[in-house]
Amino acid sequence: MTTDFTQITLIVNALRISYVVFIVILLTWFSYDKLNWFDYEKSASGDNVVSFNGHPLCMSLAWIVLMSEGIVAWRYYEGNLGLSHGLAKSIHTSLQYSAVLIMSIGLAIIFKNHGDKNINHMYSAHSWMGMFVVGAMVFQILLATYAFLFTKYERFKMRVLVWHRYGGLVIYLGGIATICMGFQEKQGWISCSDGSNYCPEKIIPAVLTVNALLVAMLASAVFIHEEDPMSTVAVGEKITLLTNAVITT
Ligand code: HEM
User: Most buried of the four, 17, 78, 86, 166, by CB within 10 Å?
Assistant: First the structure.
């Protein structure tokens, strides 16, 4: 089995560029007057309330940056850079734990912001889906920690590994979908000064949604490349893909 390291490096670099661009666009969006950067908001009684913007920033750092990097850690650090399995495991685990920490701060911010402004909690599809993926993520990380760091039962580890790999990818993609819904939710609250639907403040969430999707596609591509032996088989040029023909080279 041969592996195309150049291809993986290319995709991982594209992934990194995409998430850096995402964070830059997000911060640019916050800098518009209507988004108020990270300035305090006001409650009905005039008290200072923590800025809403901390929520999308923390959730994006957790899901778009840290988890994406965590997902490709095995392939990139162990497969490409040749780091030991133990070191790649530590990098993967640290990235996922950091994601949970930052994600918890992001959730605390939005619950505090809503609480102080007397806004009902958990009224949207975004918030329900968000709590579901967060719950799944926390369960996933606790199970993995127990199975891979604290037990020696190989059969149990093997069983958890299958769920961990595929479950992890699905939870990650669920989080990206939640992020896209969050931008749509926020977009609905923004009105353009000229009464149209076309101003940067309103369009940027759409750009960020597509950018988030691109990040998810690139991270999934690295993950699937790791699994798929098709790309590593020496397939002759004339063989038509998507047939059951026996491959003879
Ligand atoms: C995976 C990442 C995310 C999760 C798990 C998540 C979760 C949540 C939760 C649980 C709430 C409800 C808080 C409450 O009931 O008081 C909420 C609210 C909100 N979030 Fe997110 N969020 C995520 C990312 C984002 C992003 C990137 C945005 C982009 C702007 C966003 C925009 C909003 C908005 C506008 C609200 C207020 C309206 C509502 O309650 O739905 N969220 N989020």
Answer: 78
